Amino acid sequence: MTTQTAEATQSAYNFAYLDEQTKRMIRRAILKGLAVPGYQVPFASREMPMPYGWGTGGVQVSAATLTPEDCFKVIDQGADDTTNAVSIRKFFERTAQVETTTHTAEATVIQTRHRIPEEPLREDQVLVYQVPIPEPLRFLEPSEVETRKMHALEEYGLMHVKLYEDIARHGAISTAYAYPVKVEGRYVMDPSPIPKFDNPKLEMAAIQLFGAGREQRIYALPPYTQVVSLDFEDHPFDPSKAEHPCDLCGAEDSYLDEVITDDAGSRMFVCSDTDYCLARRDAGHEGAQGARG
Amino acid sequence: MMASDALTGGFADAPTEAARAFRAAMNAMAFPGRIQPITGGQGPAPLSPAAATLLLTLCDPETPLYLAGAHDTQAVRDWVTFHTGAPLVGASEAMFAVGGWEALQPVSAFAIGTSDYPDRAATLIVESAALEQAGSTLTGPGIKETATFSLPEPEVFAANAARFPLGWDAYFTCGDRLAALPRSTKVS
Ligand SMILES: [Zn+2]
């Protein structure tokens, strides 16, 4: 970047777009979120130059978190190259002058929509989730006043009843995404619409921050926080792994997307985490259809 | 009249220095008891650089602030008012409080949040003569197994943790370093 464009950038935007007072307000909410893991802290969400569906909550949390020294990665259901991910990455390249990357290991702040990277994260990394509906009890109780009271009183019986009805009806808990968790034995929390395959990874070394823009909530998990997926003694939580390995890299431990590969409807299963899959292929791993990939 | 040093000691480049300082404050809160460097601000004595930086990073006209004991001087008042605009209040109304541990007593005066809104709790900035990775044993969120940190009165922090999710949260500041102890940390 030339000096002139750098100056133009600085005059056109605040650092990371948001004004200082807004960032302070978000930062205070993040700190209280970390102090009370799993509790949803209200905050005054701001208009962002993108639609709500694009993760404005996550964008605001990232804006309050990024420093000029950060290396920023954005994934959308595991992929770095969707329109959504590319736009958010460009937004912070322009407004915060941060370096960006697609490599999980290189990133210090990762904003994600609906996945946790396969590669274990470290203490020096921050994972920021885009959250559409932060309230795990919302589908049981539409009233905000009531759900707040339920959290306050630890009234989670209805949640268990709902999950148990699932078992009675389907023989198993049918929830595959946004599977509810209990944090440190206290708050029931929505982990955002990640596949339940990712739930065991919620106990990690990195700081996890959750931002819901439309619903104006921020919540957080400090590193190593105990996060337990709700279950029953006779029906323990099952993260349900696909039966086959990745067709491109042969990984047997990753979350797979089903991809239609031609007009005849041929299908293959590939890692949803594209960086993980590429890194494995670069390292010489090959799946059943690796040559075609 | 406002002392001239009230006008100095703010962030030279607020957006980037506040961002860096916040990351130090966030890491401290996310890893309880772990001592972190934090720089950027410089207030009048007895305000430590770490405490001054926290105030610049987190306080503004929306955050009532309590200056305790030796920190309640005209110079500190002027500096805080000029740089943050935080209204100065008594302990029970404070969202933030800064001072030595003795001066912050009785800590029962501070807001601990409500069961509906546990976030509406005070953050204490405890100016300390020393910070050491020794003393009380800490467990809980943000701590892999255990951590050790020098707490002024461990039993007070243990009692604060016992009423989780209510309770205040604390930073400890000394020179250009800080550590934190959220209410979620168990102390033994
Ligand atoms: Zn793969």
Q: In CATH, what is the class of chain B?
A: Alpha Beta
Q: Regions of chain B with pLDDT < 50 over 5+ consecutive residues?
A: none
What is the beta-strand fraction of chain A?
Answer: 15-25%
In total, the number of domains of chain A comes to 3
CATH superfamily of the largest domain in chain A: Bacterial phosphonate metabolism protein PhnH
CATH architecture of chain B: 3-Layer(aba) Sandwich
Classification by helices and strands of chain A: alpha/beta
Task: Count all strands of chain A and give the number.
Answer: 12
Helix coverage percent of chain B: 25-40%
The portion of residues forming beta strands of chain B comes to 15-25%
Number of helices of chain A: 7
Question: Which secondary structure elements does this structure contain, and how are they paired or packed?
Answer:
The complex is a heterodimer of chains A (293) and B (188).
Chain A: H1 3-12, H2 20-35, E1 41-42, H3 56-65, E2 71-76, H4 83-96, E3 99-100, E4 109-113, E5 126-130, H5 144-152, H6 157-170, E6 181-183, E7 187-189, E8 207-212, E9 217-221, E10 227-229, E11 256-260, E12 267-271, H7 274-282
Parallel strand pairs in A: 2-3, 2-4, 4-5, 5-8
Antiparallel strand pairs in A: 1-9, 6-7, 6-10, 8-9, 11-12
Chain B: H1 14-30, E1 36-37, H2 49-58, E2 65-67, H3 74-84, E3 96-100, E4 123-127, E5 136-139, E6 147-149, H4 154-162, E7 169-174, E8 177-181, E9 186-187
The complex binds zinc ion.
Zinc ion is lined by residues 246, 248-249, 251, 254, 270-271, 277, 280 of chain A.
In short:
Chain A has 293 residues and is an alpha/beta fold. Chain A is built from seven helices and twelve strands.
Keywords:
heterodimer, A: 293 residues, alpha/beta, Rossmann fold, Ribosomal Protein L24e, Chain: T, 3 domains, 3-stranded antiparallel sheet, B: 188 residues, 4 helices, binds zinc ion
